[in-house]
Design brief:
With 402 residues, the protein is α/β, with parallel strands linked by helices. It has two domains: 142 residues, Lyase, Ornithine Decarboxylase, Chain A, domain 1; 181 residues, TIM Barrel, CATH 3.20.20. The chain is 30% helix and 27% strand. It contains eleven helices and 19 strands. Strands 1, 13, 14, 15, 16, 17, 18 and 19 form an eight-stranded mixed beta sheet that branches. It has an eight-stranded parallel barrel with strand order 2-3-4-5-6-9-11-12, surrounded by four helices. The protein has a two-stranded antiparallel ribbon with strand order 7-10. Helix 5 crosses helix 6 and helix 8 runs parallel beside helix 9. The model has no long low-confidence stretch (mean pLDDT 95). The structure holds pyridoxal-5'-phosphate. Pyridoxal-5'-phosphate binds next to strand 12 and helix 10.
Length: 402
């Protein structure tokens, strides 16, 4: 946090304008991703789901620690290739066009995650036409029941994957094509899960299903993709998903379920990049209407849509700035509940509602934490045409000792 505050002071010294900046702590990102990947059992490979944040500096920082990138468009394939022309890429997402499938094949992606029977048929044709044999995983939409989490991707009607009831048909079809090689299954059934025990039980279900199908249809199970969905706890930052416990239990499951010879793929987004990012915005006004206090910041949810999208109060830290060059009194709120809003002309432009603060003045800075994933990347940057925030990447130069 100290580093972030220092960076904000530097920004302010550079240009005496209200602060509006994303700040990414790349040193933290390195350490975190290294910790996460190092704890994984040997047959588990971590891929970074780049939709969480595909800024080039982020991809370059994550790249040395992960096996590759999970992408869902040709644009993302290009971003991955720009970082490293031979980095392993796994390609998923509902609604892939023929052109996208053909591009993915020519870009030599490692695996394509097939999301429907129609897509399977189209992919087989395109691969045959290109005279390629393409490795695929079938994405399964399981019937459940599942451990609880805030956002479910399967076990209920969604646009993702092939319904479990149709999976045997899909397997038989996939095995019938010369141009396709069925190498396993893809399960991404849950999002923002904070419960490490529940997550383990989910993976146990995946193991059992995948093995059962590979046994029944007599094809080797090479990969099992268990998706992302490891959560970030925004309401209590001290109490995050217990990755050490989880990976310890995972090792046991691998032995119990006899999965040592299968490559288990993780494709995490949020869990890798959320904690390295900050969205720092200066307070430009404080006012009361109808008995409520509003803090208006320089910025808005067009830069940082996450709190609106998840309907939560986003965690923050306050940073006092001692500059004030107006000839009148600096307005402040002390020990009050405030609602933090942006510059947009819509009542939905809210970052946090009725949150308690000790002291906040016009000209101070609010630093929203855990803004590194699904922050800038999911926001509609040009609504109202305000300037974009600055993007600042903090990275300690490594001193080479000769
Ligand atoms: C979005 C997505 C992920 C990453 O999800 P996180 O919750 O950020 O870990 C992984 N796999 C698929 C298929 C996705 O759509």
């Amino acid at each position: 946090m100290k580093k972030v505050f220092e960076a904000i002071h530097l920004l302010k010294d550079e240009k005496d304008e209200p602060i509006c900046s994303y700040i990414y702590d790349l040193d933290h990102l390195k350490k975190h991703v290294e910790f996460v990947t190092r704890a994984l059992p040997q047959n588990c490979h971590m891929y970074y789901a780049m939709k969480a944040n595909s800024e080039e500096r982020i991809l370059r920082t994550v790249h040395p620690y992960v096996k590759g990138f999970e992408v869902a468009s040709i644009g993302e394939v290009k971003k991955a290739r720009a970082v490293n022309s031979s980095v392993p890429i796994i390609f998923g997402g509902p609604g892939k066009t023929d052109k996208e499938l053909a591009s993915a094949i020519s870009e030599n992606v490692q695996l394509i995650h097939v999301e429907s029977i129609n897509e399977l048929k189209r992919l087989a044709m395109i691969a045959e036409y290109l005279n390629k044999r393409v490795s695929i995983l079938l994405r399964v939409n399981l019937r459940g029941p599942f451990p609880s989490a805030t956002l479910h991707m399967a076990g209920r009607p969604t646009q993702f994957g092939i319904d479990e009831a149709q999976i045997e048909e899909a397997i038989q079809l996939a095995l019938s094509y010369q141009s396709l090689q069925l190498e396993g299954f893809h399960f991404h059934s849950i999002s923002n899960n904070l419960d490490n025990t529940g997550h383990i039980e989910l993976i146990r279900i995946y193991c059992q299903k995948a093995k059962q199908w590979s046994r029944k249809y007599k094809f080797p199970l090479i990969y099992m993709n268990v998706g992302g969905g490891i959560g970030v706890n925004f309401s209590n930052l001290e109490q995050q998903f217990n990755w050490e416990l989880f990976t310890g239990e995972l090792q046991k499951i691998i032995v119990q379920e006899n999965m040592g010879n299968v490559v288990i793929i993780f494709e995490c987004g949020r869990f890798l990049t959320s904690s390295c990012g900050y969205y720092a915005v200066e307070v430009i006004d404080i006012k009361e209407t109808h008995g409520k206090t509003f803090v208006v910041v320089c910025g808005g949810t067009q830069h940082f849509r996450l709190p609106v999208s998840w309907q939560h109060n986003h965690p923050f830290e306050l940073m006092p700035l001692e500059r004030w060059h107006y000839p009148f009194e600096r307005k402040a709120v002390v020990n009050e509940k405030v609602t933090m809003v942006g510059q947009l002309c819509t009542p939905k432009d809210v970052f946090a509602k009725d949150v308690s603060i000790n002291q906040l003045r016009i000209g101070d800075v609010i630093v929203f934490l855990y803004a590194g994933a699904y922050g800038w990347s999911i926001s509609h940057h040009d609504f109202l045409s305000h300037p974009h925030p600055q993007h600042t990447f903090l990275e300690t130069e490594i001193e080479l000792k000769v």
